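Q: Predict the bound structure with pyridoxal-5'-phosphate.
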Amino acid sequence: MDIKQKYGLRDIINAAGTFTPIGVSRSSPTIAKATAEALKDHFIMEELQQAASKAVARWSGSEAGAVTHCTAASITLSVAASMAGSTPEAVAALPDTSGMPNRVVLPAGHEVNYGQPITQAVRLSGAQPILAGTDEECSLADLEPELSCPGTACLLLVSSRLTRGLAVDMKAAVGAAHKAGIPAIIDAAAQDMRLADLLATGADLVLISAHKYLTSPTAGLVVGEAGLVNAVRAHEKGIGRGMKASKEAICGVLAAIEERKGLDLEAWWCEQNRKVTWLKKRLNPLPGLSVTSIPDPAGMPLSRLRLRVTEQDAGMDAATLSARMKDGSPSIWVIDRTSGQGELYLELVQLSDDELALISDVMTGLLQPS
Ligand SMILES: *Cc1c(COP(=O)(O)O)cnc(C)c1O
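A: Predicted complex:
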């Protein structure tokens, strides 16, 4: 690609999933074209957002949708909407929450760090995050007293493989929030294929990153109840000014939703399995590797390869293997959060067959030096 040559940037192979430090995802030519076309023109932004809202609603079966800059922005703005509604005085007052409910309850195991602590995205609005339960478990009995505490604005849940502890019963948690008279928001940034399931919990808002598996330009989707979605939009005139979606992002999102509606999910799933099976067969015989296919723990319809690295046989530990792949040309990125426990994960969704073959060759070269 010209830009890489011109600026001396390295080629990269992404086996790390929808990861922000490496540009998250690659868009199809159709989505790229819609985005580029938008840059050349003016739009009445309110009309464009309304068109996106209708498209999101038709696609997801929700009442409405809004586009923000990204999910980190959507978290801050959804919390702002639950505290301040869309009253202009309250919108202008944030992050000063005087006179507003400002407690945001989340299960302790949902206090994730996706490159930023989620509690910071909450606090940016002026809200105060309250953790319920422990890292190991958050039951309804842990949640209920926090949700009914005076001054509570909303419940925030996270649907992600980054959460810790026993799975929280999302539907029951949403029910408990509603019983306490407050809205429930689910951060499902990398879970767009589960949007219908997550809306079916009764959640008032579900937040999706459109640049992850939907492969649009950087954008956040706020999906759900019309009143609260509109309140999120109202904060564009307040703390959300720097979190607004661009015309090109919204046009890219519209193209991405069209593309997703045409996707044969069954065929997609088979294709992902084919790639996982192919690479597993090649990597498993390598010295010091034990390779297993692991379904997404948060229910996305995809599996990742888990590589257990035995240092004695591999000649290096998991962290070193990951670092050597990253240092190569092209630079190969895998999920190495658990390298301390001797494990690496590979996500193959965005990879072509040629790229899979290259990963196989590079790892063979590193582990079986001739
Ligand atoms: C990626 C991610 C985010 C942040 O999404 P952006 O769109 O990059 O701001 C938030 N929460 C979770 C669980 C994520 O995976």
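A: The pocket of pyridoxal-5'-phosphate is lined by residues 20, 70-72, 112, 114, 158, 160, 162, 187, 189-190, 209, 220 (CB under 6 Å).
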